[in-house]
Amino acid sequence: MIRELGKTNSVFNQFLSEVRDAQIQQDRFRFRRNMERMGEIFAYEISKELIYNDKEVVTSLGTAHMKVLREQPLLATILRAGIPLHQGMLNFFDQADNAFISAYRKYDADEEFVIKLEYISSPSPESKVLIISDPMLATGGSLVASIKGLLEKGKPREIHVVSVLSCHEGIEVLKKKFSRYKLTIWTGCIDEELTAKAYIVPGLGDAGDLAYGKKED
Question: Buried-most residue among 21, 78, 162, 199 (CB within 10 A)?
């Protein structure tokens, strides 16, 4: 299932327009904060799909009958670009377990790349709701490698993938690779073009560099 939040008019599109804007992008703090705020909106929307239990809450004046989450999800992200988006979701799922994955594109002299997965810090996702975030879903390579790495630790009950921007190629790759799982892809917008170097167009650029500064390749 694909959920594209940008199709509905909301303040989400304001934040998305600002992370795309080349002028506003020069303010790293604002870029990170907008990513965080979109993470909060994604978390709110995903929360509507989760399971709730009845709970009696004792107030100073009586008892209120409430609906509360049955369990917190497992939040995962890919370093480093995913950190602000992940933090936004953690602001809402504030008691969640967390997983962090080191995965990146390793380029050769011909500017071809493979995905390198170096490290995963995670509890077992067995029977849990797994929410994994990465700002850009381009080829899908990083997310495929990361999810496979997490699956080696246990099988989640369902998987939610969160990306601010996506393209059709990456979406189809995820759907094919994880067809045996209950998979939902949440995105802000699906852009049509993926360049020969696997960059989304119009996209927004390198989310990690925009959030934290340029890195040495």
Answer: 162
CA dist 148 and 142 (Å) reads 10
E strand intervals along 134-182: 136-137, 158-167
Q: Is the dihedral of CA 121, 125, 131, 137 positive or negative?
A: positive
Domains contained in the chain, CATH given: 2-212 (3.40.50.2020)
Give the pLDDT of the chain (217 residues) as one tens digit per residue.
999 999 999 999 999 999 999 999 999 999 999 999 999 999 999 999 999 999 999 999 999 999 999 999 999 999 889 999 999 999 999 999 999 998 776 666 555 667 778 889 999 999 999 999 999 999 998 899 999 999 999 999 999 999 999 999 999 999 999 999 999 999 999 998 888 777 899 999 999 999 999 877 6
Residue 77 CA to residue 39 CA, distance in Å, equals 11
Which among 129, 134, 175 is positioned nearest to 154, based on CA atoms? 129
* Cis omega (within 30 of 0) for bond into 30: no
